[in-house]
Amino acid sequence: MKKLILTLLVLSLVSACSKSQEEIDLEKKSETEAQLKAEKEADLKKVEDAVKYMLKDGESARFRNVIGNCGEVNSKNSYGAYAGFSRFVFKRDNGKVVFDNPDNQYFNAVVASFCDKAYLDKFPVDDSSNNTNSAAPIDVAPIDN
Fold it and tell me: Residue range 61-73: average pLDDT?
């Protein structure tokens, strides 16, 4: 009888110490989430490093609205003053950075082609800049003299 009670006590302690399937699944999920977070941070660092390399004063770079490979950056110009935020696209296929500027009339097409869907959902591309006939016709009433 004592052996039976002792055996049951040992088995109950062993089963209480082992992890349930739910606990194991939760641990796997948290490990996967941590790995995804680390990959995302590494990708963000790669994007920011590529953008900094292209700037005159990369160490002064301030980033905002960075989602995936697209965002905005502000850095100091030749005079040492911040120039204002400018949009950028990091092209993952060749590692090049494209900046928005008044001379780049195709920048919205680049954004639409290369930016992640999450970025486009938050910052939709304005297609009206490519439309030359954006003005609506005006109805003019004749003037009676």
Answer: 94
